Amino acid sequence: MKYVLQRLAFYAVTAWAAITINFLIPRLMPGDPVEALMSRYQGQLDTGAIASLKALFGLDENQSLWSQYTGYWSSLLDGDLGLSFTYFPTPVGEVLSDALPWTLALVGITTLISFLLGTGIGVYSGWRRGSWLDGLLPVTTFISSVPYFWLGLIAIALFAVKWPLFPFEGGYDSSLVPAFDWPFISSALYHGVLPGITIVLSAVAGWILGMRNMMVTVSSEDYVMVAQAKGLSERRVMFSYAARNAVLPNISGFALSLGFIVSGTLLVEMVFNYPGIGFRLLQAVGAKDYPLMQGVFLIITLSVLAANLLADMAYALLDPRTRKEA
Amino acid sequence: MTAEPILTISGLDVDYGTGASGVRALRNIDLTLHRGEVLGLAGESGSGKSTLAYAVTRLLSPPGVITGGDVHYHRPGGGTIDILALSPEQLRAFRWQELSIVFQGAMNSLNPVHTVHSQLTDVLTAHRPGMRAAERTARAEELLSLVGISTDRLAAYPHQLSGGMRQRVMIAMALALEPEIVIMDEPTTALDVVMQRQILRTLVELRERLSFSVVFITHDISLLIEFSDRIAIMYGGRIVEQAGATEIYRDPRHPYSEGLLHSFPALHGPRRELTGIPGSPPHLSAMPTGCAFHPRCAKAFEPCATRVPVLAAPDADQDREVACWLHR
Ligand SMILES: Nc1ncnc2c1ncn2[C@@H]1O[C@H](COP(=O)(O)OP(=O)(O)OP(=O)(O)O)[C@@H](O)[C@H]1O
Ligand SMILES: [Mg+2]
User: Fold this and answer.
1) Would B51 be classed as within a structural domain?
2) Interface contact flag, A225 B113, Cβ < 8 Å
3) Which residues in chain B touch residue A223, judged by CB atoms under 8 angstroms apart?
4) Structure pTM?
5) What is the ipTM of this complex?
6) Which ligand has the minimum distance to the alpha carbon of residue B25?
7) Residue B194's domain is classified under what CATH number?
8) Are residues B41 and B165 both part of a single domain?
9) Among the atoms of ligand 1, which is closest to the Cα of residue B48?
């Protein structure tokens, strides 16, 4: 318990530092970005947007840095991240909360699937070296070495254009209104198949290789030999002794990869025009939509931190050696 | 001492690797363990002691392969089991139930992520399917107190135990199913002398109480002299001498046994001069011809370099064997 509190405190401090840096960076930018933006938008920016920009870049001369900082925190805690230009006048918070579920569902589920599938295959192929599963390794490794961009385009070219089995872009049929009903959900699932499969294909090899190598290493540990000498069933030796210990590095790898769901989704959403966070970031960068970019960065930072925290907790739960005596 | 055998090893050959890169780790091992005795197995590092222990329990991991010979287990009630011919299922049932093993470097023999309790009881779950959880826990407590560890350590993880305690836990675990044979591969070498003595004392007591047979492997022959009944001495993958512990101590026949005796201080009895053995043990891939020991042997003479001496009784009706041309 003490350990958990210590870690929580550590991450709280880190989060505070990250948010503070997020606050400072636009204020340290040289020149007058607001003027530049206003001229770029040729006077089409409305006064509300200009105000939110000025606040963002700290150009509100009437306020000290400290009062800007406290103001930043209070609006952050209210969930107020300013207004987006690209979706003007939608607040950034709203743009993000619309996009986040798409990313979380697509990349979250596929990350989980690749982890489970890859770890499972890794356990078996590491335990029974030389079985047919080993034949899978070069194939998956080859696929994972193909840049994701290519893989996605090939998948689209084959399964959406040549044989139009799946839609080639979007998160759902644009004729539908987003709602929690079957037509919409099934359309969302259908649109998720192709990006989902490509993500799993490109990620699974890493999990297989990692798990297989750990299984091979752990299999030669003395305690695995002891378990065998004890006449335990093969399942028990394989899972409770070998895999149980071999999975530890993969577990923390998995928790960390959860943190990269949000940041790593850019390419996928670019290729498939998927309405998630990565796509929004792309738009924000293209339109110099600083408030939206900042919001996305904030989410990425927080999700990486949360994933690290999760990794720590999972490790403490699974490996008694890291648990500190209270 | 009863002469009833419980484990007979005959003509056992073990190779590491096959073909050109293969080396012969054990050659033509003949060894018998009798019921209730402590058989000491001594020899320098690399002489094949652990390999023998693994081969007997069929735990050799690749590239180790048994290329010849037999290992038979004689059931106390009568009946003989050919260990090398057991099916995987039969082997699982045989292991730990009849023969358990305390591994060299028992420090790493415990799984770091499971509690002592779980590692003591899973062997009961596997071999005693009818046993209830409460009975298993009771047995685990009993085992811990047997080796002098307080029962509240059951919930501990291995890293929370001292080296000596881990060693004791391994011994307790080896006794969990009351096996007939316990093989101990250098169970105490990683510990300080005081702890070694303590554990050995526990072991001797337990053996008297539970009457199992022990194969005790060590390179410290003085330890064996003290508390084993018979000693077999290995060199370069062969057994070069075997005899009662006192015979070996008083009257070693093989020059290598003599050398070994002079490499360790005896704990009791008259002081001997420590001389050691000149040179170092041969590498498996460059085993000398003839008697493998001849390049280091002060008494080597004409046949030693060319012909391999067989293990045989040196004098007519003695209960000892030696493989040396001096005694032909
Ligand atoms: N996996 C392996 N591959 C090749 N050779 C091996 C392997 N394991 C052991 N050997 C060789 O077999 C020989 C016997 O090794 P073994 O471990 O049985 O020696 P030991 O008598 O137990 O030594 P120690 O006292 O150091 O434990 C050594 O020469 C060693 O190099
Ligand atoms: Mg050894």
Assistant:
1) yes
2) no
3) 108-112
4) 0.83
5) 0.88
6) 1
7) 3.40.50.300
8) no
9) 18
